[in-house]
Amino acid sequence: MTSSDLAGRIQHTLLKITASADDIRRLCRECREYHFQAACIQPMWVDLAAQELAGSATAVCAVADFPHGACTAEAAAFEVRDLVRRGAQEIDVVCKIGYLRSGMDAAFRDDLAAVVGAAQGRVTKVILETSILTPGELARAINLSAEAGMHYIKTASGFNGPGATVEIVREMKRLAAGRVKIKAAGGVRTREDAVAMIEAGADCLGTSSGVAIMQGGTQGAGY
């Protein structure tokens, strides 16, 4: 895999609550320098990131209903519409695991469908928190996400347990059966990690170690 191909799969991520405006500007400069596919940020920074990345090939990706997926469907849809209005081109939303665990499959699906509608054609990804799902819950979550019209299923938020593993990405790929794409996030720290996730079936990667990956080293804890 060439460096250009790898960079085109990386969503360079900064979701720390301590991130400053200068940190976001630096993230965006790195996205421009390395030609990363997207910058993934908290909602409060969408305006700034859209300004900093204007004219570049890097998309602005914002998280929504983050990090617990605990707000109402109406509130989540409102947030997504606002993020789109401000310049977000991709939305990563946390699913409602409580609905899934309660057997409320229709509510789980309808909540995600509302996000898809609010995104108005923008790319949507659902964060499943795979490390805290049973195998049966994972299978149901993937089926319901596909039914809702989600474009991607994503391993983790980075705030609720471990993230991606090669094994879980392979299982997600198998269960998705081509209906949705896969974003591997959490613990992708090195070039070797990144390539392994892609070979396992990930279509894109969420990581705070994008620069280190491109330089062949390690950096930070890895999102």
Give structural notes:
With 223 residues, the chain is of the alpha/beta class. It has one domain (3-215): Aldolase class I (TIM Barrel), CATH 3.20.20. The protein is 45% helix and 17% strand. The protein has an 8-stranded parallel beta barrel with strand order 1-2-3-4-5-6-7-8, surrounded by 7 helices. β2 (38-41), α3 (46-52) and β3 form a beta-alpha-beta unit. α4 packs parallel to α6 and α6 packs across α7 (135-148). The longest helix has 14 residues, at 21-34. The protein is globular, with a radius of gyration of 16 Å. The model has no long low-confidence stretch (mean pLDDT 96).
Task: Give the ordered list of helices and strands.
Answer: HEHEHEHEHHEHEHEHEH
Strand order of the largest sheet: 1-2-3-4-5-6-7-8
Structural class: alpha/beta
Name the CATH class: Alpha Beta
Q: What general outline do the C-alpha atoms trace?
A: globular
Radius of gyration (CA) equals: 16 Å
Distance between the termini: 22 Å
Low-confidence stretches: none
Q: Main sheet, how many strands, which sense, barrel?
A: 8 strands, parallel, barrel
Oligomer: single chain
Q: Say how many strands there are.
A: 8
CATH superfamily: Aldolase class I
